[in-house]
């Protein structure tokens, strides 16, 4: 079903483009020149607005404050990362210590133990 819808869309697009070219009031070359000119005018207008915005930010206090805010955020992020790294390393070391305690060999000679009498009936 989706394939048929896609085929109808492509066919409709093609028919629309063909009809539009047939009834266009100007020739193809003239239309392309107009489109190129208008696109260039649009790019020039956008470029001009970007330059105006850049000048505004540079001349105002806004640019300096934004830079300070970004630097502060980066420094805080570095501090948080450093603290997290230290905590992670401490946790890893604590885990290693607990693991090493857990795998200590069990004494095989019970004579060293104080209470060697086991009452099996209590189990």
Describe the structure.
- This protein has 123 residues and is mainly α.
- It has a domain of 33 residues.
- It is 76% helix and 0% strand.
- The longest helix has 41 residues.
Number of helices: 3
What's the total number of strands?
Answer: 0
Query: Per the principal axes of the C-alpha atoms, what is the gross shape?
Result: elongated
Helix content: over 70%
Structural class estimated from helices and strands: mainly alpha
Major sheet description: none
Radius of gyration: 39 Å
Question: Distance N terminus to C terminus?
Answer: 71 Å
Low-confidence stretches: none
SSE order, one letter for each helix or strand: HHH
The overall pLDDT average reads 81
Q: Give the DSSP E fraction (strand runs of 2 or more residues).
A: under 5%
List keywords for this structure.
mainly alpha, 123 residues
Could you outline the blueprint of secondary structure elements for this entry?
Layout: H1 2-22, H2 28-59, H3 62-102
């Amino acid at each position: 079903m989706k394939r048929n819808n896609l085929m109808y869309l492509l066919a409709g697009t093609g028919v629309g483009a063909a009809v539009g070219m047939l009834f266009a009031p100007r020739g193809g070359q003239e239309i392309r020149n107009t489109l190129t000119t208008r696109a260039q005018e649009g790019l020039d207008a956008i470029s001009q607005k970007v330059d105006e915005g850049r000048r505004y930010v540079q001349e105002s206090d806004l640019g300096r404050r934004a830079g300070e805010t970004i630097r502060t955020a980066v420094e805080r992020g570095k501090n948080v990362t450093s603290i997290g790294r230290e905590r992670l390393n401490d946790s890893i070391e604590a885990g290693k210590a607990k693991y090493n305690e857990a795998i200590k060999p069990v004494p095989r000679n019970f004579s060293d133990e104080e209470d060697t009498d086991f009452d099996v009936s209590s189990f």
